Amino acid sequence: MASGVELESVSKLYGTFVALRKVSLRIKSGQCCVLLGENGAGKSTLLRLIAGLIRPTHGSVRIFGEKPHDARERIGYMSHAPMLYEEFSGAENLRYFVALYRERDCMSPEAALAAVGLDASLKRPVGQYSQGMRQRASLARALLAKPDLLLLDEPFSNMDAASAKQMLDLLARLRAQGKTIILTTHQRELAEPLADLLLTLQAGSVASVVEASGGVRR
Fold first, then answer.
1. pTM of the prediction?
2. CA nearest to 112, candidates 132, 137, 88
3. At 1, is the secondary structure helix, strand, or coil?
4. For a Cys-Cys bond, which of 170, 181, 190, 215 suits 32, CB 3.0-4.6 Å?
């Protein structure tokens, strides 16, 4: 299986504070890696490094054999914050973001929303969406540019059980389509069926890496 994401002895320092310490990791193309750990363990920092939003202080990151900056068109990033305009509907939000990707072959807003189970004709502003709907709209935004790598920061955050199950099923379908997925969560029991790797961070260091079944196939 081809290489997807490779980190070699990556550290990230903010002054004297060490956010990540000598993290090494290899995720093959098409696999799912679930990042676990307490708040402040370094999960979001690691995700932002892989996304190319910040640079490592030491070490190297490769995405499909390239530096994150050079692979940015293959990356879809969903932050913990929704990154959506609350006064716009889901479709209006996605039309705005599609306009920013003029040089790229994007999904239509309607297709992206349909892919996550949302109705593009819904006129309700995002500010009136349920948490589950917001998360799915955020994922639709990340899917717009047809990325090969999805980076998802707490995609199950504040969801009820039914919405979390819908998100899990959606991610399983994306994984079955060949997407490489890295996600952070506090809900190990929910994400574990999707995972090939379970990586636990503690105070910025790798506490454990466990190979899982990656058993959800749809």
1. 0.91
2. 137
3. coil
4. 181
